[in-house]
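Structure (tokenized):
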């Protein structure tokens, strides 16, 4: 059922439209530079976060659909990650996940009527280990997101996304043009 709800993301012209919209947002973010944040920059970053999340989802659906060129999948994924991580890099996901899972663990141990000292020690150890594990994953996600959300990279990805959309509208793609 969930697949049929999201099927519209892989039905033409939705991938093409998302590539154009995401490309334009990336170009706007890229050309605004490192000047003090403006209203346009804030709006572009907020829209980029939403469009980026949808593009990441769409890219995975395109990969499973199988009827789309590799370049469409790749550009959608890279641009989506770049736009999404422009905002998401500032959130400490590892800490939030460790705290939430630790709270559920502490509550579960409390329901087992264990001694409070045992609950605290086990929860603290689990939270530290989870934070280290999630922190390791978060570090690499931040690294990739940092590279892809770098303004010059966003401009290039935005231009590639618009080019891919234009080629898709003409029943072609970067994959078919380059032969890769």
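Design, position by position:
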């Amino acid at each position: 059922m969930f697949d049929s709800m999201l099927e519209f993301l892989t039905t033409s012209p939705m991938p093409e439209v998302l590539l154009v919209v995401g490309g334009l947002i990336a170009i706007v973010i890229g050309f605004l530079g490192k000047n003090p944040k403006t209203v346009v920059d804030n709006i572009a970053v907020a829209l980029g976060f939403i469009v980026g999340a949808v593009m990441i989802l769409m890219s995975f659906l395109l990969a499973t659909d199988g009827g789309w060129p590799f370049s469409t999948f790749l550009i959608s994924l890279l641009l989506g990650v770049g736009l999404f991580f422009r905002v998401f890099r500032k959130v400490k996901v590892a800490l939030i996940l460790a705290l939430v899972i630790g709270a559920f663990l502490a509550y579960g141990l409390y329901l087992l009527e264990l001694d409070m000292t045992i609950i605290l020690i086990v929860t603290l150890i689990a939270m530290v280990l989870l934070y280290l594990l999630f922190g390791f994953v978060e570090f690499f996600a931040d690294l990739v997101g940092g590279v892809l959300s770098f303004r010059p990279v966003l401009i290039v990805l935005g231009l590639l996304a618009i080019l891919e959309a234009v080629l898709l509208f003409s029943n072609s793609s970067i994959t078919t043009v380059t032969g890769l």
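Reviewer-requested clarification: The chain has a mean pLDDT of 82. The first helix runs from residue 2 to 5.
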